[in-house]
Amino acid sequence: MKAYLKNTDGLTFIAKGESNHYLVLDTNPAVGGSDAASQPMELMLISLGGCTGMDVVSILKKKRVDFDSLEINVDAERATEHPKVFTKIDVEFVVRGDNIPAEAVERSIFLSATKYCPASAMLRKTAKIEYRYKILDKDGKEITSKLLDLGL
Predict the structure, then answer these.
(1) What is the pLDDT of residues 77-109, one digit of tens each?
(2) If we measure between CA atoms, which residue out of 30, 25, 26, 148 comes closest to residue 90?
(3) Which residue segments constitute the domains of the chain, with CATH numbers given?
(4) What's the CA gap between 93 and 98, in Å, rounded?
(5) Are 116 and 80 in contact (CB under 8 A)?
(6) What pLDDT, in 10s, does the model give residues 60-77?
(7) For residues 127 and 87, what is the distance between their CA atoms, to the nearest angstrom?
């Protein structure tokens, strides 16, 4: 895999991966950026959410679980000293629909976290990652929620 980045102004970069899609990166003005785009560490959390989310959706579809929506909230804590790596990450899946089997959601998250998602595997080297889920009915009423113990 390869990536190309070009500095355009201040700390703003235009980036492109092998898929040939462009992305803009920047940072906040306090450190010299212009706040024109996502910061690199934000993109790492977005990548984690996207990686594990794609796994979970794929697995739920293979299990023929019919859901209306899936949202992922990713929240992280960072070290106070440089390099300010992530030290703790919470990943919450919110699945909405009727008759969603909790066991299928748990199994899908487990497989993503322990087997399929390379972003999870890499970030786990520096951060404790906790996974949780909520199942909501079509009206938004909470059916169940659980913090998973994946043994990681």
Answers:
(1) 999 999 999 999 999 999 999 999 999 999 999
(2) 148
(3) 1-38 (2.20.25), 40-148 (3.30.300.20)
(4) 16
(5) no
(6) 999 999 999 999 999 999
(7) 4
